[in-house]
Amino acid sequence: MLLQQIISGFLASGIYALFAVGFTMIFGIMGVLNMAHADIAIVAAFAVVALAASGYGGLSIVLALVGVILLSILLERVAMRPGRRFHGDAGVEMPLIATIGAGMIIQNSMALIFGNKAQLFPYQLREFVWIGDFFFSKGLILSVVVSAVLLVVLEIFVERTSFGRQIRAVATNANAARIMGIDPNLVIVTTVAITGFLAGVAGVLVGLTYGFVTPYTGVTYAIKGLVAMIVGGVGSLRGAVFGSVLIGVTEAVAVTYFGSQARDVSVFLILILVLAMKPSGLIAVPQGR
After folding, report:
1. Is residue 155 domain-resident?
2. What distance, in Å, lies between the first and last C-alpha atoms of the chain?
3. Total domain count for the chain?
4. Is residue 233 part of a domain?
């Protein structure tokens, strides 16, 4: 029973990792948090619901992903870029507040359009399959496979490509990168587009796995993604993934022994313990900003 829950927790961590990595990339390169990141994921899920109902079929997923990439770029332009004109606390606080506001606008817009009740996702993988003595959700299996592939590709892209080196240069010191001929705005917009794509995939996977979405589903995943980022080590992509796995497994074990009420409590207990013992996170990275 315990091993079953641990493996299920590991599978659930795939979705958490997509959110955590999205938060990490934006914070690493801009030094700010995009608090609307998880809400963008839910926009993708609702877009699939609307487009599928309009007869677009499987193309609805592709269109939804393109839509949230464009939405992410728009959000960067109107809510995050203006804050880069300022230095110090203002440069951090303005985008933070702006993206919180953007997230609330997105949530309430979805509620006005689709209603506050849960909407059934048109494509579902809620069936279970047996693997040996264990059974798992097809949706969770697909989620961890898709997440693993995307995160490996992202790791290769960031570490081994020319543009990936530009991303790391801007994350380390944007002014020095500009002197070297790198356009920080282009790098930031591209990074935002990548995180928008990750958010969109995560939103679709949530719908596929659990069969429904609500306008406020993003709040839960925002919390889990942020905690995973902090636990793993702010600025570390691998740390974000490791933190997500730790969160997923901890949740599963807590539910097994203490019931579903302990799910969220266990997440914050892990956060408190890690901050108390290693404030920089489990996989700390040097701060070059």
Report:
1. yes
2. 46
3. 1
4. no
pLDDT for 238-273, tens place per residue?
899 999 999 999 998 898 888 888 888 999 999 999
Burial state string for 266-281 with b = 16 or more CB within 10 A and e = fewer than 16: bbeebbeebeeeeebb
Q: Rounded to an integer, what distance in angstroms lies between the CA atom of residue 24 and that of residue 33?
A: 8
Question: Binning pLDDT at 50, 70 and 90, where does residue 71 land?
Answer: very high
Whether 238 is covered by a domain: the verdict is: no
Q: Specify if 235 maps to a domain.
A: no
> d(Cα 253, Cα 236) in Å, to the nearest integer?
25
Q: Which is it for strands 134-137 and 128-131: parallel, antiparallel or unpaired?
A: antiparallel
Structure tokens at 155: 């790791």
Cβ burial of 201 (10 Å; 0-12, 13-18, 19+) is buried
Q: What is the model's pTM?
A: 0.91
Quote the CA–CA distance of 123 and 137 in Å, as a whole number: 14
* Nearest of 231, 203, 228 to residue 110 by alpha carbon: 203
Question: What would the pLDDT profile of 204-213 be if each residue is shown by its tens digit?
Answer: 999 999 999 9
- Reply yes or no on whether the pLDDT at 285 is more than 70: no
Distance CA 289, CA 169 (A): 10
16, 224 contact by CB (below 8 A):
yes
> Under DSSP, is residue 179 helix (H, G, I), strand (E, B) or coil?
helix
* Domain containing residue 182: 12-228
Q: Degrees (nearest 5) of the Cα angle 30, 174, 157?
A: 70
